[in-house]
Amino acid sequence: MSTTPAPVGTASWYRNARLSLGLSTLAGGGLLVVGNVDPVDEMLSHSIRTMPGALLLAVASCGLSATGMWLLTGARRALRNRTLSILLTVWCVALVAVAFFPTNLPGTPPDAAAAVHRIGAGLMAALPPLIALLVAELAGRRAESGRTRLLRAAGLSTLAACVAFGAVHGPAVLLGADIPPYAGLSERILLVLILLVVGLCAWVIQGEEKARWT
């Protein structure tokens, strides 16, 4: 069977996406030990109360934004869907907003930067499961595979976790009110699921690109 040679650098976006995702994961993990934030009852964004915490939060957000940009590169090559490109672009912008517009600390009034941060954080959490389900749908049109089924299951699980978090903690987070107990733990579980679906999206898109060029 004849094959069409893949363009030079086809796999580079996937390698860079994994590196960016790894950097974001390491920075996020570092926030468990710096930032002076209770991982059970306080939100990750409150890490800005210390300089190391603020720096790691920015690195984690920007690293995840870079991952999204590399995913966008792969998606344009392999899936070529305008809606997916728009969702990934909005997600990347939302992560930059999270990095550079700090939230208000507990006991201080919210300002314009805090409002931008909350909108960015909401989009950062809500879009990945939708992106994952769209990637699974687009990839499944060619041929349903173990990759697409795993991504779809992870996307649905993350969507359920996001809806539950939004219903229980969303009003307090968005309005700057006192957050309920265990909000920090719930947020961190949701973020782990987001990292998982982003990594699976990259894996599925990479598989679609390989199939396109064979």
Overall description:
The protein is an all-alpha fold. The chain has one domain (12-212). 73% of the residues lie in helices and 0% in strands. The protein is built from six helices and no strands. It has helices spanning 12-30, 51-78, 82-100, 112-142, 146-175, 183-212. Helix 3 (82-100) runs antiparallel to helix 4 (112-142). 41% of the residues are buried. The model has no long low-confidence stretch (mean pLDDT 89).
Helix content: over 70%
Biggest sheet descriptor: none
Global geometry = elongated
Q: Structural class, judged by helices and strands?
A: mainly alpha
Number of strand segments = 0
How far is it from the N-terminal to the C-terminal residue, by CA? 9 Å
Quaternary structure of the protein: single chain
Strand content: under 5%
Summary?
With 214 residues, the protein is mostly helical. Helices cover 73% and strands 0% of the residues.
